[in-house]
Amino acid sequence: MTILVTGGAGFIGSNFVLDWLAQGEEPVVTLDKLTYAGNLANLARLQNDPRHTFVRGDICDRPLVARMLATHRVRAVLHFAAESHVDRSIHGPSEFVQTNLVGTFSLLEEVRAHWNELSGARREGFRFLHVSTDEVYGSLQPGEPAFTETRAYSPNSPYSASKAGSDHLVRAYYHTYGLPVLTSNCSNNYGPMQFPEKLIPLMILNALEQKPLPVYGDGGNVRDWLHVGDHCEALRSVLTHGRPGETYNVGGSAECTNLQVVNTLCELLDRLSPRTSGRYSELIKFVTDRPGHDRRYAIDATKIRRELKWTPRHSFATGLEQTVRWYLENRAWVENIRSGEYQRWIDKNYLAR
Ligand code: NAD
Ligand code: TYD
């Protein structure tokens, strides 16, 4: 038996694949389109590992997905593939609708056809795990209780709207067709191999190049940070012990304002890689806010903690230090990524701010 991982060359997907194969012997087949965010270097360690097969392709390519499901006798699908960056969804929403909504629909259709062909224990045990986000719930006021699984959806960006739509489709496939789906909605992840368009790696790399650290608005927006390793553990638990049709919120219980995160990163870098003169926090620059910028996200992870006995192992302080060290020690990975496309994105998003 095999698991199929979509988007397994991206940040969370590649951490998941490496983690999965470090913990057991069950093979993985990865399907990834290798967009700007997909990076085979993330999976380089598996190049000669017979337990891993990499297929470059699109989740919207239904014949390809059908072949992969049948050939590899897939018993579970972990669906990470997505366009994942809010700022990019503001500049160009169409890819988000295509991959996140239409792509998830295409995948569900092929998975349903595959599952319909199964019988007995293989049919009973089959799972489709949809990896989603807390952003579908919209924005919290200060002091408001954190998001539980029953919170009404209220997405505010093209990214979160496309993920919300995909969550609804996944839910419908359970209720209408009985497809054994599971959905997880997690908070902001951080850790090794995150593409440096997202807050934490962007700030680390800009700082190391003595470039401005662009904080949107007043820097008071709050995110609830989750280490990617803790997220991978949560997903393994949901896959193994989660109840079909249920959703599970996953969060690190580490609410921080963006300014707190950036200041902590500056302090870590002052210690681990000091500037020749001055401190990194001198590079902080407040820039024009993101349109529709959600003020606060926070996850109430009571359900997954209680039902699946999952608990995060990393504190934000230790996880952040480990992450900074990873970027300091993996300069070749960083250089490999910062191609023309990356530079074009940086110019598009930041020059006019
Ligand atoms: P990422 O952008 O780093 O990786 C996405 C991967 O999907 C890339 O490898 C890309 O090549 C691949 N991909 C994109 N379109 C594809 C397509 N049409 N067909 C096949 N592959 C395609 O994203 P990530 O941060 O690893 O996020 C993974 C999942 O987790 C996403 O579904 C995202 O919505 C969700 N999520 C992420 C976070 C976070 O903080 N990063 C938080 C909550 C939820
Ligand atoms: P991001 O990493 O893009 O994740 P998300 O939008 O999915 O939460 O951004 C995290 C927070 O950091 C968000 O409030 C926006 C803010 N931010 C900045 O202030 N400056 C930046 O350059 C970026 C990329 C993000």
Tag the structure with descriptive keywords.
Rossmann fold, binds thymidine-5'-diphosphate, 353 residues, seven-stranded parallel beta sheet, 13 helices, alpha/beta, two-stranded parallel sheet, binds nicotinamide-adenine-dinucleotide
The CATH architecture of the domain at 2-190 and 227-251 and 295-312 is: 3-Layer(aba) Sandwich
| The CATH top-level class label of the domain at 2-190 and 227-251 and 295-312 | Alpha Beta
Low-confidence stretches: none
DSSP summary, beta strand count: 13
Percent range for β-strand residues: 15-25%
Q: Could you tell me how far the N terminus lies from the C terminus, measured between alpha carbons in angstroms?
A: 50 Å
- How many helical stretches? 13
Largest sheet: 7 strands, parallel
Rg on CA atoms, Å: 20 Å
- Share of helical residues: 40-55%
Query: What sort of overall outline do the alpha carbons produce when their principal axes are compared?
Result: globular
**Major sheet strand order:** 3-2-1-4-5-6-11
The helix/strand order is: EHEEHEHHHEHEEHEEEHEEHEHHHH
The small-molecule ligands in this entry are: nicotinamide-adenine-dinucleotide, thymidine-5'-diphosphate
Average the pLDDT over all residues and give the rounded result: 97
**CATH topology group of the domain at 2-190 and 227-251 and 295-312:** Rossmann fold
CATH superfamily of the domain at 2-190 and 227-251 and 295-312: NAD(P)-binding Rossmann-like Domain
Given the helix and strand composition, which structural class is it? alpha/beta
Task: Summarize the structure in words.
The protein is an alpha/beta fold and 353 residues long. The protein has a domain at 2-190 and 227-251 and 295-312: 3-Layer(aba) Sandwich (Rossmann fold), CATH 3.40.50. It has helices spanning 11-23, 62-71, 86-91, 94-116, 120-125, 158-177, 199-208, 228-241, 258-272, 302-308, 316-329, 331-337, 340-350, and strands spanning 2-6, 28-32, 52-56, 74-79, 127-133, 181-186, 189-190, 213-216, 222-224, 226-227, 247-250, 255-257, 284-287. The strands form four sheets. The protein has a seven-stranded parallel sheet, sandwiched between helices. Strand 1, helix 1 (11-23) and strand 2 form a beta-alpha-beta unit. Helix 2 runs parallel beside helix 4 (94-116), helix 7 runs parallel beside helix 9 and helix 9 packs across helix 11 (316-329). The longest helix has 23 residues, at 94-116. Bound molecules: nicotinamide-adenine-dinucleotide and thymidine-5'-diphosphate (TYD). Residues 6-7, 9-13, 31-35, 37-38, 58-60, 80-82, 84, 99, 103, 131, 133, 163, 186, 188-189, 195 line the site of nicotinamide-adenine-dinucleotide.
